[in-house]
């Protein structure tokens, strides 16, 4: 085994694992995130799950131990209360929306969101989302 192969093997075991729970009623947006996450970043591994209701989101965030929760503010009628509840459970919560209104960002922050990102299907934007999710992720075990 060469030094380069050894370093790659070590790096692979040290990759951080991000458990990203997506709360959204648009399956296509979730599938784009999953597709990109599966082929993404050598520095971390992203596992994704989808919740389409607040009850599912709270249950999955707790039982699956999501490190980051992405909540579409317009997909869930009680999205702001959900942000608050999830942030109190210990997950880093990121709000997202098709609208990048400053007042939405401020309100999301007041309800516990650590960030506010535009909802997008652009691969560059999804890369930013995944990088941000990794940066705010609660401590997690090294990826296998």
Short description:
The chain has 144 residues and is of the alpha/beta class. It is 47% helix and 22% strand.
Please, could you describe this protein's structure?
- There is one protein chain.
- With 144 residues, this protein is of the alpha/beta class.
- It has one domain (16-136): Response regulator (Rossmann fold, 3-Layer(aba) Sandwich), CATH 3.40.50.2300.
- It is 47% helix and 22% strand.
- It is built from 6 helices and 5 strands; from the N terminus they run H-E-H-E-H-E-H-E-H-E-H.
- Strands 2-1-3-4-5 form a 5-stranded parallel β-sheet, with helices on both faces.
- Strand 1 (16-23), helix 2 (27-39) and strand 2 form a beta-alpha-beta unit.
- Helix 2 (27-39) packs across helix 6 (123-136).
- It is globular, with a radius of gyration of 16 Å.
- The two termini are 20 Å apart.
- Mean pLDDT is 81; it is low at 1-13.
Short key terms for the protein model shown above:
144 residues, alpha/beta, Rossmann fold, 5-stranded parallel sheet, 47% helix, disordered N terminus
């Amino acid at each position: 085994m060469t030094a380069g192969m050894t370093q790659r093997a070590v790096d692979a075991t040290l990759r951080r694992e991000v458990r990203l729970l997506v709360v959204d009623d648009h399956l296509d947006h979730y599938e784009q995130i999953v597709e990109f996450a599966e082929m993404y970043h050598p520095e971390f591994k992203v596992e994704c799950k989808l919740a389409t209701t607040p009850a599912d989101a709270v249950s999955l965030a707790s039982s699956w131990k999501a490190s980051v929760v992405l909540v579409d503010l317009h997909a869930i009628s009680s999205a702001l209360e959900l942000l608050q509840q999830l942030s109190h459970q210990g997950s880093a919560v990121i709000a997202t929306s098709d609208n990048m209104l400053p007042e939405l960002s401020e309100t999301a922050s007041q309800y516990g969101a650590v960030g506010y990102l535009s909802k997008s299907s652009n691969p560059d934007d999804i890369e930013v989302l995944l990088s941000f999710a990794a940066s705010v992720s609660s401590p997690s075990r090294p990826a296998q």
